[in-house]
Structure formats: structure tokens, C-alpha cells
Amino acid sequence: MRKILLATLAAAPLVASAAPIDRMLGDVSAARIEANIRKLVSFGTRNSLSDTDSDARGIGAARRWIKAELERCGAGTRMTVAFDVHRVESGSRVPRPTDFVNVVATIPGVQPESRARTYVVSGHYDSMPSDPTDGTTDAPGANDDASGTAVAMELACVLSHYDLDATVILMAVAGEEQGLYGSAGFAKAARASGMQVAGMITNDIVGNTRAPDGTVNRDRLRLFAEGVAAQKELPDPVVQALRTGGENDLPTRQLARAIEDAARTYVKDLRVDVIWRRDRYLRGGDHFPFLDEGYPAVRFTEPAEDWRHQHQTPRVENGVQLGDLPEFVDFGYVAKVARVNAAAIASLASAPSVPRGAQIEALRLEGDTTIRWQPNPEPDVAGYRIVWRATTAARWEHSRDVGKVERFTLTGVSKDDFVFGLQAYDRDGNVSPAAYPTPYYPPR
Ligand SMILES: [Zn+2]
Fold this sequence. Notes:
The chain has 444 residues and is an alpha/beta fold.
């Protein structure tokens, strides 16, 4: 990865290859995030049913500003910005035919072997007052979800100035409050077109640090990661993983582990708490449609939500200010959330892909563990790493770099007693999420 030098940056020193992700995180600006959240609030309402003609108020003005702002901050880079329109004729929260319009910024990967591999980061720019179908009342949506929108925008503005191997899409989606329509439209089209979404992160409600009881927590961020999807018919690869205790090692949880690892490496002042659950009770988010299409997808949300400032028409009741107003957003915290996202996406998009064809040899009864796999296609792969942990542990506890081979035996480590994973790493130390090795039984 290297930083692209624009004419305006010509005086800057050449970027050293050491720790480029640290440099990138230094580009994340709390001031720009605050300005963007305040600007989004200034459109009065961004309800998906609000006015689309005005240049000052409503969701149309908001999305035109988001697109123009992304084009401005990505000028001179390879990033492209486009509207992505999904028409919905009717629904419980869609009283009339409505166009749900996402703003999609795409940073193409620079490595030919990795360009098709795509990571998606989103926030939803639509908002709601107390009534989700009210398109006229003020709905500032500073935290839900101008905060997540500002994170996605900040990533676009920062990452577009760097070369990443894989493709990264940053998007502001509409229709979340109506029923995840913008995200669903994108995810369905992605699946239909064969897009390889290797990981998706939605940032939704990532800006409040004061719990309803007044306690403040600026040091934690929740990451919701589903295990086995709750569906009656399971796909064959899932069933195969379940047969050997791989229920916590499907791609979404492996993605969560990789994000947690990147956060721990690069962002010391914000701890990612992985929660093994699809989402909070009674809530949902834009990762759902991606999960439903079979893509690994997770959700970031602040540690302690204050529901007085979500989905509420701004008003004072019994001396209490209700409403999702900017005064309840901690902009410095949102910047930390943006840094966690940037660290995770930059390391994922720089790292090799998840190794393919990983299998654990089950040819005889033995006390050793032998894993075999296919070589990765990327030219900068430096080697492979076998990781393992107790079957009851959540995070990897042991690792062994085994070099650039396609088969390795861990002598004296019993496959019966641990869960294993296989990662690939590149010359700069960027590590892929782990593959869960399925059993290789003796050929009959
Ligand atoms: Zn939301």
C-alpha cells in the first residue's frame, strides 16, 4: 500500500512503506466528521419520503450534497461516485412508490488478483421523526445515522488517497428506517451480478457516549456478528462446518475476529467488543440484507444507547430534551470509530484473500494435526499461518507461521481438542481472515 501523491501534496515527503495504516489513521479528521454531521442535520429531515426537489431541505438535497462532497474530497484519485437507485412500489412504511437512492463511492483495487474482492462500509443517511412515514417533520438524525454516514464518508475521503489491493465501496444508503430498502437493493444486485463481497460493515448509531444513566464510555464499540443464520435450510458448506464444531467459525465471525485484531493492533484507545448475535433485540440494520445474500456482514454500534435521542421528533417533555440532535453526538468518539473502520478495511483490503480449499486431514486416528490448502493467487503472499484455540474460546490462542507451503503438520496438537484456522499474510504483514478447514477423509 502506498499513499497517492496529488499535486497539492507534492511537498509532502515520500511515504515510507512502514506502517502506512498508522499514517492513514492520522488522516481521519474529527473536525471534518463534525462538519459533515452538522451539514446532514441542516437538511431538516432526511426521511426517505421527504422532499426530493428542494436544494435546502429533504433527502434529495442531502444525497446530492453527499455525492458532491465525496467527489470533491476524492478529486484526482481513482474513486468514482454514483447514485444507485432502487424503486419500491409499496410497503408497510412505503405508502407510495418511492425511489431509494444510495450514494456509492468505489475505490478500485490496484492488484489485478484482488480487484474483484470487495469490501463494503455503509451508514444510512435517511432519518425519521417519531413516525417513520412522516416526511415533513424535522428529523435531525445526528446519531441515527448521520454518525455512520460521516464514518463512511470519512473512509471514502481518506482511503481514496491510498492504494489498496482489493476494491473498497463506501456508501450512504437510504430507506433503512423504511425497511432496509437501500441496502437490500444493493445487496441483491451485488449477488445477481456476482460481486465478491468479502466483508460488509454497517455503522449505525456510532456517536453517543452517554448512557441513559449519565455514565460516559468513550472507550468501547460494539460489533455484532452472527453465527449460523436462523433458517430452516442450511447451505452445504455450513452443514459441513457444523459437523466438526465449526459453528463459530463461519465467515461472518472470522470477519469479526479480523476486525477485532486490526482494531487492537492500530487503534489503542477504542476496544471492539464482539457480540455473537445478529443485532440487538427489537432492532435490525443494513447488514441483514448482506447476510441474507450469503455475504459476511457485521454491525458497529455505540456501547450504551440513549433511546431518548433516537427515532424521536425533537421536543421537550417533562423538562427532558428528546430528539436525535447534534448536541448529543461525541464527534471525537465518531472519529475513533472511523479509525477502527479504516484500520480494519485497510488491512483486509491489503491482505491476501482467505485461503481456499483448507482441509484438515482425517485419514487415520492420530494425535497430530495436518492441514492442507490451495495456494493463494496474490503475488505478494509471503506465507501462511495456522491459528488455533480451545473449542470453548472465542479468540485465537495459538499461532504458527508455516511459510509458503501448501500442507503442514502440527505435531502433538490434537485436532480433536482445538478449533483451527488458516490465514494468509503478505510481505507487509497484513493478515487475511481465517479459513475454517473442513475434514479431508480417506478416498474410498
Ligand atoms: Zn439507524
